Amino acid sequence: MKTEWIAVDWGTSHLRAWAMRGDTVLDQAQSDQGMSRVAKGAFQDALLALVEDWLGDAPVDVVACGMVGARQGWVEAPYTAVPSAPVPGLPIRVPGTDPRIRAFVVPGLKQTSPPDVMRGEETQIAGFLDTHPNWDGVICLPGTHTKWAQISAGEVVSFRTFMTGELFDLLRGHSVLQHSVGEGWDDAAFAEAVEDALSKPEQLAARLFGLRAADLLHAQDAGVARARLSGLLIGAELAASRPYWLGQQIAIIGAEGLSAIYAKALQKQGAFVETADATRSTLAGLTKARNLTRQTA
Q1: Is residue 37 packed enough to be buried (19+ CB in 10 Å), middle (13-18) or exposed (0-12)?
Q2: Which residues does the chain have with pLDDT short of 50?
Q3: Which pLDDT value is given to residue 294?
Q4: How far apart are CA 259 and CA 243, in angstroms?
Q5: Is pTM, for the whole model, over 0.85?
Q6: Alpha-carbon span 69 to 73, nearest angstrom
């Protein structure tokens, strides 16, 4: 196997890498050495431990996106202000690397007002747009911190971030709801909760405690409670993001299960939605960034 370059998605919790030849994946590997688990100065060691078998004598380009470019990461890759192409220019070169690699980090995007930032999602957006030329609309990137990005003429015009995924995890695992929310799922309960939160988002805090009360008084199923919790939070997010998605062409880029949940919620509102694979979009975006690095010595 002759690796031409290495694509890296380096988030807060996980590190994923792919051995590439052009835009073809030769091999892949991952570890739990996300940015939050790597000490400053130890990023190269964490990467080499994962990809060393792919290296030879000649230097190989490594192109990374995500939180590896944060202030606490391998190298700080300054944000680019929107409106901007998702990958507007050359990635940032990491200085002083092992002679077997040339490492680059894709910068994130920032929005001055209202203040917002993204790292990693810009690469997925770039990959999606590379395979959907002349696409205008809104891209939703669901996850721990869900992004809604307005796209026009190949640029990210504006975006908003919602802490929906993190709130779900905190409420399920560290609030009084931990005693009532379990595994399982109920589509009808999810849909009903989405509609409730969309129509009355100001009732969110009361509806959340209602999940605990329904358990205590009516022995509500833990899977139904989980679906309702998700529906309430996503419904409140959709209510707040309505100016973005209402009447727009929408693409969802994310993990398959979570993307399907968002797609169902939006389709219930009459929205036209298409979904895109997150890994495929990430690799397409990193390939685009890698082609920019080939302009450097």
Answers
A1: middle
A2: 297
A3: 78
A4: 20
A5: yes
A6: 5
